[in-house]
Design a protein that fits this description.
Elements: H1 6-16, H2 38-44, H3 46-51, H4 57-80, H5 84-104, H6 109-138, E1 140-143, E2 146-149, H7 150-156
Length: 161
């Protein structure tokens, strides 16, 4: 209640209560336009970018750096490393491709997701940084024209909401 991140907090509450969560892939079952443009996506995901890090600047920086390292290192290393390091990066890249093949179930998504993954990661990093800067300039998260101050959001992290 009174949270812009109620979906994520509900998930945390479910886990804290000892229940399990699962998901299903339904590419052929339904199709919904999530956001009509990249700008709308960046604005729409602002509220969740900091929730994931429980509104901690240190956790945000660490998480963003680790995401960039782990998601981009295989691509960069495959192209520029030599010897065993390059082989390891290629192996990790092949594992990533297998992941995309399983998730995409052999659709066009497999190759396009794999090839574009570094671009997606960089765009997501920009989204994270943008959300963090804007939230700190505003003193909290804005969702549906309402400002949720950090003081209120931080006191409810890990609690019952």
């Amino acid at each position: 209640r009174n949270r812009p991140d109620e979906d994520l907090q509900l998930g945390r509450l479910v886990k804290r209560m000892g229940f399990r969560q699962d998901f299903a892939i339904g590419f052929d079952l339904a199709e919904v336009e999530w956001y009509p443009s990249l700008g709308a996506l960046m604005r729409g995901t602002e509220k969740n970018c900091l929730t994931t890090f429980e509104y901690s600047a240190a956790a945000f920086v660490l998480g963003t750096v680790l995401m960039l390292v782990f998601d981009l290192l295989p691509a960069v290393g495959s192209l520029f490393a030599h010897g065993p390091a390059q082989i390891a990066c290629i192996a990790v890249g092949l594992l990533a491709f297998a992941h995309f093949a399983i998730v995409g179930r052999g659709t066009w998504r497999t190759l396009s997701y794999f090839v574009l993954w570094p671009v997606f990661v960089l765009l997501f990093a920009v989204t994270l940084v943008r959300a963090n800067v804007l939230a700190h300039l505003r003193g909290g998260l804005v969702w549906r024209d309402t400002l949720y101050p950090f003081s209120v959001l931080r006191e409810k992290v890990g609690g019952s909401g």
